[in-house]
């Protein structure tokens, strides 16, 4: 039965839309999509006449329209007309007007709901107001931050020009001193090398003897093991002896030089092409290599002596052990020669003219200091240029939070975030979740951090930081919606609005003016509608 007349608005129509259902002297009413005209009495007659469902705002006949719940004492709302008189008290209609036929009794709880909603709005408004005041301070700071950075940059750039000029002058002096030194060294090379050779002759000869001694010892140990390999009694099946032979065979495979004589010869054969210092150090290096070989061979025999089966009395084994025992005192007595605890002190090369060297060392030191000062200043300039190019949000609001760090702990990890820097996941060690990349969108409420440590069989870790209004800066939640893609929820005054009492009043007016859902809103509400229908 229709509930509308030419003089009264039909059920389910918002006051702001009453004019759409006023007769204005006409006998018929036109569907809101303009497709059809029907008598006023056909509005809300529980029969769908209009394709857009606009003739049935207060019944479920069309099911495609929207019903207005006045919700006095709370906020008005819309629900789909398909949900009218379906036996379910819809929470959007706290006044119970969606079940007007009385199939079920829906109490009017708008006063209670309205009170709770107002308390929540007041709580949020208080946070927004306090946060907005703090944000205003951030804006004030941001306004001067980049000016300050630019002033610092201008100062450093002016200083850099002077430092660079001074560094170039010092480099020119160093280049000149270096050229003089190289010319001097070229002219005096033969006589200086002869003097140096004579100076190093005693310790070079001493090092040759060390190498020869070490070579003899190595040859003796190797010969003992080779004889053991050939003559040990295989019928005894002594596993320790077999392990010794195997270790010796592996050693032979690793050897690049077959005999110490060849190695010594290599050093000697190239002496004509080397300086006295190069010859001495080559002998030292070769002696060190031979000592390592001695240690390996001695250890093979030492282990065999300790662990072999003494009941077998294998002559080859006993002979090899005796050779090792004979060598053991030498190994101890000449320990310094073999393990290098006592190094031969190499005299300093003083055959370059002292004045020549002092001038070169002085200009070299000055050049090094000037270059370091230039590099340091250049690094500071680049750092300032990077900070100046950074997007700190509208009114530079986030400038005060640059490099400020925050942490959030869950049951397993500690998550940290240094704004505009890096996000980390910490446990026994730190894992990078990414470094600041950019803002997402134009609202300055979401940051993206990328390039974190690569996941096992996955992508590089990354973080989205979603910001909301809060009185203090804090991470309030961390999750991992997708593999290696993290979500930080971050509260900050920087995300608050700077609001006035007028703004609060306008916001309330908007809440009280229920808006007819758009197509996008309808699509978003599909899931909620499904759940309702299931009830």
UniProtKB/TrEMBL annotation:
Residues 353-376 are annotated as: Disordered. The keyword Signal applies. Keywords: Coiled coil, Disulfide bond, Endoplasmic reticulum, Signal. PROSITE patterns: MRH. Residues 110-187, 211-242 form a coiled coil. The keyword Metal-binding does not apply. InterPro entries: Gtb1-like (IPR039794), Man6P_isomerase_rcpt-bd_dom_sf (IPR009011), MRH_dom (IPR044865), PRKCSH (IPR036607), PRKCSH_N (IPR028146). GO terms for biological process: N-glycan processing. It comes from the Eukaryota. GO terms for cellular component: glucosidase II complex. Residues 403-498 form the MRH domain. This is Glucosidase 2 subunit beta.
């Amino acid at each position: 039965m229709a509930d509308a007349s030419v003089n009264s608005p039909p059920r389910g129509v918002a006051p702001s839309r009453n004019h759409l259902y006023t007769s204005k002297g006409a006998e018929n009413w036109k569907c809101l999509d303009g497709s059809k005209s029907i008598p006023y009495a056909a509005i809300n007659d529980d029969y769908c006449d209009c394709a857009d469902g606009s003739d049935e705002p207060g019944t479920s006949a069309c099911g495609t329209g929207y019903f207005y719940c006045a919700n006095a004492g709370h906020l008005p709302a819309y629900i789909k007309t398909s949900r009218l008189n379906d036996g379910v008290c819809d929470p959007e209609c706290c006044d119970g007007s969606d079940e007007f036929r009385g199939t079920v009794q829906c109490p009017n709880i708008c006063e209670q709901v309205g009170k709770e909603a107002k308390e929540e709005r007041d709580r949020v408004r208080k946070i927004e107001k306090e946060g907005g005041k703090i944000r205003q301070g951030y804006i004030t700071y941001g306004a001067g931050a980049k000016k300050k950075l630019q002033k610092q940059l201008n100062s450093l750039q002016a200083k850099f020009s002077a430092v660079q000029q001074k560094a170039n002058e010092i480099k020119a002096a160093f280049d000149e001193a270096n050229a003089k030194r190289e010319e001097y060294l070229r002219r005096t090379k033969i006589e200086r090398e002869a003097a140096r050779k004579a100076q190093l002759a005693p310790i070079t000869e001493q090092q040759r003897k060390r190498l020869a001694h070490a070579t003899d010892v190595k040859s003796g140990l190797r010969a003992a093991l080779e004889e053991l390999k050939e003559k040990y009694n295989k019928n005894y099946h002594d596993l320790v002896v077999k392990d010794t032979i195997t270790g010796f065979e592996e050693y032979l495979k690793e050897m690049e030089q077959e005999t110490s004589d060849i190695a010594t010869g290599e050093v000697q054969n190239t002496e004509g092409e080397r300086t006295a210092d190069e010859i001495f150090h080559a002998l030292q290096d070769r002696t060190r290599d031979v000592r390592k070989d001695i240690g390996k061979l001695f250890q093979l025999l030492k282990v065999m002596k300790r662990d072999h089966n003494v009941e077998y009395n294998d002559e080859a084994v006993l002979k090899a052990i005796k050779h090792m025992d004979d060598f053991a005192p030498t190994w101890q007595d000449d320990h310094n020669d073999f393990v290098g605890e006592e190094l031969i002190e190499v005299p300093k090369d003083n055959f370059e003219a002292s004045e020549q060297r002092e001038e070169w060392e002085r200009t070299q030191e000055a050049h090094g200091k000037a270059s370091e000062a230039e590099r340091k200043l250049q690094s500071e300039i680049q750092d300032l240029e990077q900070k100046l190019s950074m997007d700190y949000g509208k009114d530079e609001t986030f400038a005060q939070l640059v490099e400020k760090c925050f942490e959030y702990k869950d049951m397993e990890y500690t998550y940290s975030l240094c704004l505009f820097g890096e996000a980390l996941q910490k446990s026994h060690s730190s894992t990078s979740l990414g470094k600041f990349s950019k803002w997402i969108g134009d609202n300055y409420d979401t940051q993206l951090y990328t390039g974190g440590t690569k996941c096992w069989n996955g992508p590089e870790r990354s973080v989205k930081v979603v910001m909301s209004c809060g009185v203090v800066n804090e991470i309030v939640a961390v999750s991992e919606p997708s593999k290696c893609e993290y979500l930080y929820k971050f509260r900050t005054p920087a995300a608050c609005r700077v609001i006035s009492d007028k703004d609060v009043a306008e916001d309330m007016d908007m809440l009280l003016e229920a808006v007819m859902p758009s197509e996008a809103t309808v699509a978003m509400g599909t899931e909620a509608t499904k759940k309702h229908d299931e009830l």
